[in-house]
């Protein structure tokens, strides 16, 4: 039977290959233990979910943390259609299938589309993440923001055995030259306990990171403007309490407090692209406030498993986000219009975004029609965002208030003994954008802009189907639409023509991404594979471009992205598994307005093609080893600036672990061959290629030794 049951609470159901992760497996189906996919808007098993889903479980996360403690890097290592990491605090230019992913923590949105500072990948420590759920392609399952897909961080829950446990770990990281300032340290203490009617999780994680060194032994240049993860420290405090009010009624309250702050111990020495010398760092004190990410996420969820024969889930949430960027005497900042001639004023910006909202979902599968599940619900979201200049108190982006009310309904019908699924749904986004009258900063002409309250109503549909032709072979096809707002902040701060009002600015119109996908999943014996092809179009999309000062601005124009992905693995035995993944992406836009979508999307909008390979083995119960390869292929762009062409590179990572009576010891080796390479963003982004201060190398060979135990 293809699906054990169908109880789908999604707004967009894309029938496809649902995969789970094991200790040594990248593409494995769900194991005997039932896996629930929270990102689908209802707690349903992965084998009953007709969506393209990748699940990265806790063990796979722990394995990857030996290579990098960034959750974004964890995802990138397992999903070839994710962009290569910049290895910086900023994720600008990092994309999923050429578009923006929506990041969530237990369903609470972390992304900031209204003023996208590209910091939403660093909002929680991996120590409290039980698994990562990745839903591919544009969709409206979780509302605004998922034009590329969804990444949901599911937090820890205690085992339902009443025993409880305390987890402790300590780790040290160093480059292979063991430079004194390159050492990093990490400590985590987590408690989990199920008391029956009440269950508890509490965790504290602290990490301090040293300087990073490239493959040639040079200290990598710090990005004093966008922010760094090298020479930084982070603290994550987490608590979750569950209450069983009745056997079928559960209340859960979660709080996560996260801060990542740079130490500011280094300043950059700009590189020289003409001679091939990358940017490096020397000891020094940076000016102004140190770049930080401060993110507090709170949620409360009530689940009623048997309300009038169906399941009800109600979630309320609040999230506050502040990211401080580095500063300088940039043309866009220093001139307030009051300085004496020749005087430049230092300044820096901070993005602030507070979100609150509620999600109501009700699903029923006993309505008198065999195989039919009906799901309905209502989402409410309020987002207040702005960008201020910290030193002078000016608003670079005025206060923007976005509200959305979105009802939805989804129908899923099974036929032919659950081998055939037909799925369809509709969601209506009713959104309002409110901005008061404001004046741009001096660099945009101190232009007076009239406020307004434009509203948008968009109806989003989906339809799809899958059919199990024979046991283990299932093709699927689906069409879905995703909804997001453009980076309104970049639009509003760049207005420099008089007589403009927010009501009449076409550039604040929503982005609708249409996604069509065809694929096939296969499983036979120890072999598992999936192949899919997709096309994604936006008639009025968004493309980032860099102005003369290297600051990103927004252009609204038609965009088209297509690609295919292949993945597979084979179990040679219970102890050895090999696997591979490949993603090919092409993207174009209409940059000259002639109606032809024929100009390549640049590197900050699309990733290179990528191949991943791995082999994992457990030669004995207490020993495990893994080797993985990631190859980024060359990419050329049909722009006039041929210096944006990308020279690919290959990275190999290794890890091994051994369990002893006093705990488990793991060793990870990042970039095991010590490849000296320039990152994709630094090589090919138009915002970087003509700027020697954005000529960054990737990290060289790095060792991590970790001890962990469970009491």
Automatic annotation (TrEMBL):
Coiled-coil stretches: none
Protein name per UniProt: TonB-dependent receptor
Annotated keywords: Cell outer membrane, Membrane, Receptor, Signal, TonB box, Transmembrane, Transmembrane beta strand, Transport
Keyword hit for Transit peptide: no
Organism per entry: Algimonas ampicilliniresistens
InterPro entries per the UniProt record, alphabetical: Beta-barrel_TonB, Beta-barrel_TonB_sf, Plug_dom, Plug_dom_sf, TonB-dep_rcpt-like
Annotated compartments: Cell outer membrane
Residues of the signal peptide: 1-20
Major subcellular location class: membrane
Pfam assignment, any one: TonB_dep_Rec_b-barrel
Assigned protein family: Belongs to the TonB-dependent receptor family.
The UniProt record lists the keyword Hydrolase: no
Top-level lineage group: Bacteria
TonB-dependent receptor-like beta-barrel domain segment(s): 288-671
UniProt topology in membrane: Multi-pass membrane protein
């Amino acid at each position: 039977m293809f699906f054990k049951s169908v109880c789908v609470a999604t707004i967009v159901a894309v029938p496809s290959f649902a995969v789970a992760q094991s200790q040594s497996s990248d593409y494995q189906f769900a194991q005997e233990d039932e896996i629930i996919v929270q990102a689908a808007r209802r707690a349903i098993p992965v084998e009953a979910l007709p969506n393209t889903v990748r699940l990265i479980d806790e063990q796979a996360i722990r394995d990857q943390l030996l290579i990098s403690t960034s959750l974004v890097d964890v995802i990138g290592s397992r999903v070839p259609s994710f962009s290569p990491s910049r290895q910086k605090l900023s994720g600008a230019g990092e994309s999923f299938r050429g578009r923006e992913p929506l990041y969530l923590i237990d369903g609470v949105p972390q992304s900031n589309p209204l003023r996208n500072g590209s910091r939403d990948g660093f909002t929680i420590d991996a120590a409290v993440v039980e698994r990562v759920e990745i839903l591919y392609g544009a969709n409206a399952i979780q509302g605004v923001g998922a034009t590329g897909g969804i990444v949901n961080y599911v937090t820890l829950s205690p085992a339902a055995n009443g025993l409880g446990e305390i987890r402790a770990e300590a780790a040290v990281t160093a480059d292979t030259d063991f430079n004194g300032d390159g050492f990093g340290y990490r400590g985590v203490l987590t408690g989990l306990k199920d008391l029956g009617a009440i269950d508890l999780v509490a965790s504290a994680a602290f990490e301090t990171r040293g300087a990073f060194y490239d493959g040639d032994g040079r200290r990598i240049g710090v990005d004093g403007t966008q922010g760094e993860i090298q020479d930084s420290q982070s603290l994550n405090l987490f608590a979750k309490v569950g209450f069983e009010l009745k056997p079928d009624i559960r209340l859960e309250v979660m709080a996560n407090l996260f801060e990542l702050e740079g130490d500011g111990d280094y300043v950059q020495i700009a590189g020289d692209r003409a001679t091939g010398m990358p940017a490096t760092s020397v000891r020094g004190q940076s000016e102004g406030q140190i770049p930080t990410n401060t993110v507090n996420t709170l949620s409360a969820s009530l689940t009623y498993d048997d309300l009038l024969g169906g399941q009800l889930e109600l979630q309320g949430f609040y999230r506050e986000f502040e990211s401080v960027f580095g500063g300088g005497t940039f043309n866009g900042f220093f001139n307030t219009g009051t300085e004496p001639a020749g005087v430049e004023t230092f300044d820096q910006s901070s993005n602030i975004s507070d979100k609150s909202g509620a999600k109501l979902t009700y699903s029923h599968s006993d309505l008198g029609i065999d195989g039919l599940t009906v799901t309905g619900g209502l989402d409410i979201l309020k987002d207040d965002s702005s960008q201020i200049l910290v030193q002078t108190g000016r608003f670079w982006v005025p206060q923007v208030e976005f509200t959305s009310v979105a009802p939805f309904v989804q129908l899923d019908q099974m036929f032919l003994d659950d081998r055939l699924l037909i799925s369809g749904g509709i969601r209506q986004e009713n959104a309002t954008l409110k901005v008061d009258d404001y004046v741009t900063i001096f660099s945009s002409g101190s232009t007076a802009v009239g406020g307004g309250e434009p509203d948008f109503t968009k109806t989003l549909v989906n339809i799809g189907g899958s059919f199990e032709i024979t046991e283990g072979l299932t093709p699927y096809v689906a069409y879905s639409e995703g909804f997001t707002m453009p980076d309104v902040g970049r639009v509003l701060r760049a207005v420099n023509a008089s007589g403009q009002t927010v009501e009449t600015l076409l550039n604040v119109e929503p982005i609708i991404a249409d996604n069509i996908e065809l694929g096939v999943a296969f499983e036979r014996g120890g072999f598992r594979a999936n192949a899919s092809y997709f096309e994604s179009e936006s008639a009025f999309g968004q493309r980032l471009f860099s102005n003369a000062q290297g600051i990103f601005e927004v252009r609204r124009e038609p965009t088209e992205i297509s690609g295919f992905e292949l993945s597979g693995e084979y179990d040679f035995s219970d102890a050895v598994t090999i696997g591979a993944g490949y993603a090919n992406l092409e993207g174009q836009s209409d940059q000259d307005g002639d109606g032809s979508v024929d100009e390549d999307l640049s590197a900050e909008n699309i990733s290179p093609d990528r191949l991943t390979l791995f082999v994992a083995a457990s030669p004995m119960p207490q020993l495990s080893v893994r080797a993985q390869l990631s190859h980024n292929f060359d990419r050329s762009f049909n722009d006039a600036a041929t210096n944006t062409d990308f020279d690919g590179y290959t990275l190999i990572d290794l890890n091994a672990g051994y369990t002893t009576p006093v705990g488990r010891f793991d060793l990870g080796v990042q970039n095991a061959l010590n490849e000296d390479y320039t990152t994709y963003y630094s090589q090919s982004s138009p915002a970087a290629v003509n700027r020697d201060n954005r000529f960054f190398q990737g990290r060289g060979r790095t060792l991590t030794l970790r001890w962990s135990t469970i009491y």
